[in-house]
Design goal:
Blueprint (H helix, E strand, L loop, with lengths): L4 E3 L2 H14 L4 H14 L16 E3 H5 L3 H14 L6 H21 L6 H16 L1
Antiparallel strand pairs: 1-2
Amino acid sequence: MTLEAFRVSNRARDHLIKLKRLTYIPNWNAICRWAFCVSLAEPTPPRRERIPADSSVEMTWRTFGGDCDSLYWALLKERCRRDGLELTEETLVEQFRLHLHRGIGYLAGDADVRSIAGLVRKALAKHKTADR
């Protein structure tokens, strides 16, 4: 794996600040994990776009994934397989950034995510929908 560290865009940083204030989740890496998983749960692939790495928010892959970093990498690889993408390092890094930024945008724009309880309700609602 070549993704040692990554930086988010200024827009994503602003969204993370908002989400941190609303949810009282103290660490951006936890919010980023939620965001990444929210995006992975969407049936459509993220739109390919150039995302600037123009903010001061940078984290290592290990910080992002914590003890489950290999699980998040495996989830990304599986999603890329499902989307018919090659599993090159370049593609995986690009798709990670696209999923992360899409997920951050989804969470920041969701009127129901105004607390950590809102995040949990969102996850439970998605789980119930998936069970049908």
